[in-house]
Amino acid sequence: MKRLLMSFAAGLISLCSFAQSFDYGVTAGLSVSCPRHAGTHVGFDVGMKGEFALSENDNYPYIGTGLSLRSRGWKEDLYIEEAMERKVDWKWNLNYLELPVLVGYRLTASDRAAYTVEIGPYIACGLWGSSKADGVEDMDDTKVFSDGMCRRFDYGLKFNVGYEYDRWQFQLGVSGSMQKPLKTTVEVMSNPRDLAVALKLTYMLSR
């Protein structure tokens, strides 16, 4: 992970050296995790966004990056054997600080409107999280990263399409993790890789 962080930093510095201009803004939205073989989780995605333009033309490529606080997770069925089988919801809620490095292209539609498309990798660091089985007290855990249950670092890929009007940007994106979130599992755990759809609204402060 240390090498990955260093590679990200070196690549971002190298790309930024070719930038013609830099714009930044604030962003907020919803992130819906829908991993395979597990229930969905609705979370948030808020933070700062930056764009390094690589050309002064009307239509131009750019590098998109930023820092965002993003909530992920999943839900699965847990069967408990008592006098009779009982099914409860086992919910995982994980919160990460995420850094993407995306290659984008802006296609100008008018003086105030444009379309965008972005693709690239991201890295993320888990800050806090929880695991809770409804009605089962001894299966509640609010320190899933520090107690070694979940991997603190994550990485994956993102793809976004968007529409921009004046200083406002609306984006629809998908992202997928390249690794499973749990360090160790037992038979009842699904341990799904995160696959999410996000809707984000950004206001560019400098444009």
Q: Mind explaining what this structure looks like?
A:
With 207 residues, the protein is mainly β. Helix content is 7%, strand content 64%. The chain has 1 helix and 9 strands, in the order H-E-E-E-E-E-E-E-E-E. It has one helix at residues 2-16, and strands spanning 21-33, 41-53, 60-81, 85-108, 113-133, 136-141, 153-165, 168-177, 195-204. Strands 1-2-3-4-5-7-8-9 form an 8-stranded antiparallel beta barrel. Strand 5 (113-133) and strand 6 (136-141) form a beta hairpin.
User: Main beta sheet, described?
Assistant: 8 strands, antiparallel, barrel
Classify the beta-strand content into a percent band.
over 45%
Mean pLDDT: 86
**So what's the overall shape?**
elongated
The whole-angstrom Rg is 19 Å
Lateral strand order in the biggest sheet: 1-2-3-4-5-7-8-9
Distance between the termini: 34 Å
Sum up the structure in keywords.
elongated, mainly beta, about 210 residues, 1 helix
In short:
Helix content is 7%, strand content 64%. It is mainly beta.
Write the layout of secondary structure elements.
Layout lengths: L1 H15 L4 E13 L7 E13 L6 E22 L3 E24 L4 E21 L2 E6 L11 E13 L2 E10 L17 E10 L3
Antiparallel strand pairs: 1-2, 1-9, 2-3, 3-4, 4-5, 5-6, 5-7, 7-8, 8-9
